[in-house]
Amino acid sequence: MMTTEDIADALEITAKLMELHNENPFKIKAISSAAYKLGKTRLDLNNQTVDELTKIEGISKSLAEKIIDFTTTGTTKELHELIAKTPAGVIEMLGIKGLGPKKVRQLWQELELESVTDLLYACHENRLVELKGFGEKTQNTIIQNIEFKIKNTGWFHYAYAEKIGQPIIDAIKNITDLVSFTGAMYRRCEVIEEIDILVGDESIDVDEYYSETIPINFIQVNGNVFYRKLVETSSTKEHLEGINYKVLETKKYDSEESIYSNLNIQYCEPEIREGLFELEKAKNNQLPKLIELTDLKGILHNHSTYSDGMNTLEEMATYCKDLGYQYLGICDHSQTAVYADGLKPETIFLQHQEIEKLNQKLFPFKIFKGIESDILGNGDLDYEEAILKTFDFIVASVHANLKMDEEKATTRLLKAIENPYTTILGHPTGRLLLGRPGYPINHKKIIDACAANKVVIELNAHPYRLDIDWRWIPYCLEKGVMISINPDAHQLKGYHDMRYGTYVARKGILTKEQCLNAMDLNSFESFLKNYKK
Predict the structure, then answer these.
(1) pLDDT of amino acid 129
(2) Are the CB atoms for 121 and 93 separated by under 8 Å?
(3) pLDDT of 307-327, one tens digit each?
(4) Helices 77-84 and 4-20 sit at what angle, rounded to 10 degrees?
(5) Could you give the angle at which helices 25-39 and 4-20 cross, rounded to 10 degrees?
(6) For 229-266, what is each residue's pLDDT tens digit?
(7) Which end of the chain is more exposed for a tag (fewer CB within 10 A), N or C?
(8) pLDDT at position 362, please?
(9) How high is the pLDDT of residue 57?
């Protein structure tokens, strides 16, 4: 059964292959737009009728029929024919960042390159330098992107691995309670190579539990050593050495906490067993209570159908309230983000009117008037000051012109941070885990500037972003910079990504006191009222 993400990917490759073969541009645009929209949602498209699917914005009858083909057969006749007339290596080249269908067509037809390996070799021979539309800079970027893709082959997002592994854990729990994720999964790392599962019963046949897409490694032990083995296999080598694990007695323990107690070291939650900044704090009994999902009182940085979201403003707000949150920050895209239906000034006025009406209807729940303002190439925010001052808060983010060196990227962000209307710096590096590394920035300069200008830094909770990197959170806290865990939700289900953000926030030893949206409604209102005064 294809997921919505699978279908979005299939539509995207359909559009790319059509463009590669120079087919109808209007049809290509419609399919590409639908792929973009569906890529932002997690609606279940299975068992839907054509009439039901056409109710989704941007889905025509012909696109609905394609979606039904994907959900029932896994492909479409059109995609099958496109793949049949395209070398497999050329299709693989379409997956290289920075190479659109037109450029791939050039490489295929003019240089007769038919694989990523051919392309990399051609780059090292400088064969792209003289090719129209390429040049040395583009050639070097292609080399970097190919090497990045090769390096990350065989890695998986935590969220994906969890969907595969959790049902296996649940099934084994019907046999024994002594079962747990371990390794990188138990530490809730952003990306993993395999799912490690510890089972405290050597008699269970684990061969029946497997996955065709991701390696699963079972570790079976006698129940008497389960918790010792759990600490041992879930910790990095540096953490184990730091807590002097070798001196541990071989007796039976009934919990992980009792093991740390026996070592006379403060208990380290699984997420922080990295052998980094947790060790000194644990040895001095200075580890704070880590933030939990239930500590979060509001959800900031969300999108609605006013821009590229899948649900109306009222639907987003009502669902947020139903989940038990006290407030919502709506942050649709700004006008420069044309591809995402960014808001024109007149649309902002209409949205603000609707927010005021909904706040009366949903009281005491409150919607705050926000915007995700593009940080323009020169570091300015989108909109004139007269528009900027109408918002309750502003998330400033980079979405375009991502090919920057560290100096340019840092300078661009610094100017946005210094803008008096910037409240939160959104996904600071623009990275997509396993997709693109993000633009390089001088993290210390950026964090120092946020401290000086009272700007909050976002930890984007989308499992493909998780940006800012958790390893920089301790420095943020040292400088007094608050973190805001934001889902960047484009539909209702996106709110549930908050837990992924919370997982990595815990890895950075974040507490609720240092998290902006752990403030209750009254405290958050006071924060905005007194902001930068």
Answers:
(1) 77
(2) no
(3) 988 899 999 999 999 999 999
(4) 50
(5) 160
(6) 999 999 999 999 999 987 667 778 999 999 999 999 99
(7) C
(8) 98
(9) 80
Distance CA 286, CA 289 (A): 10
Q: What integer pLDDT is reported at residue 116 of this predicted model?
A: 86
CA distance 29 to 15: 8
273 CB-near residues (< 8 Å, 6+ apart): 187, 231, 234, 235, 236, 239
The token pair at 372 is 């995700």
Q: What is the dihedral of CA 82, 86, 90, 95, to 10 degrees?
A: 10
Distance from C-alpha of 113 to C-alpha of 108, rounded to nearest angstrom:
5
Give tens-digit pLDDT for 112-156.
888 888 888 788 767 787 788 898 888 888 988 888 887 778 888
399, 374 contact by CB (below 8 A): yes
The string of DSSP letters for 132-154 reads: TT--HHHHHHHHHHHHHHHHTTT
What is the β-pairing status of strands 216-220 and 366-374?
unpaired
> DSSP per residue over 39-79, as a string?
HT-----TT--HHHHTTSTT--HHHHHHHHHHHHHSS-HHH
Find the Cα–Cα–Cα–Cα dihedral 399, 405, 410, 416, rounded to 10°.
Answer: -30
Per-residue pLDDT at 251: 76
pLDDT value at residue 165: 97
Looking at residue 47, its pLDDT comes to 86
Q: Is the distance from CB of 303 to CB of 489 less than 8 angstroms?
A: yes
Cα–Cα distance, 487 to 460 (Å, whole number):
6
Q: Which domains occur in the chain, in start order? A: 4-151 (1.10.150.110), 156-283 (3.30.460), 293-529 (3.20.20.140)
| Nearest to 174, CA basis, from 201, 149, 194, 192 | 201
Q: Which amino acid is at 9?
A: D
Distance of alpha carbon 108 from its chain centroid, rounded? 33
Residue 533: what pLDDT? 55
CB-facing half-sphere around the CA of 103: CA atoms within 13 A: 17
pLDDT at 247: 67
What does the chain come to in residues?
A: 533
pLDDT < 50 positions in the chain: none
CB of 278 within 8 A of CB of 509? yes
- Indicate whether this model's pTM tops 0.90: no
Q: What is 305-342 written as a DSSP string?
A: TTTT-SS-HHHHHHHHHHTT-SEEEE-PBBTT-GGGTP
CA distances from 145 to 95, 103, 142, 208, 283 (A): 10, 15, 5, 38, 42
The answer to whether residues 310 and 41 touch, using CB atoms and an 8 Å cutoff, is: yes
pLDDT for 532 equals 63
Residue 315 falls in which region: left (phi positive, over 0), alpha (psi -120 to 50) or beta: alpha
528: tokens are: 């905005």
The residues that bridge with 220 in the sheet, in sequence order, are 199
pLDDT of residue 446: 98
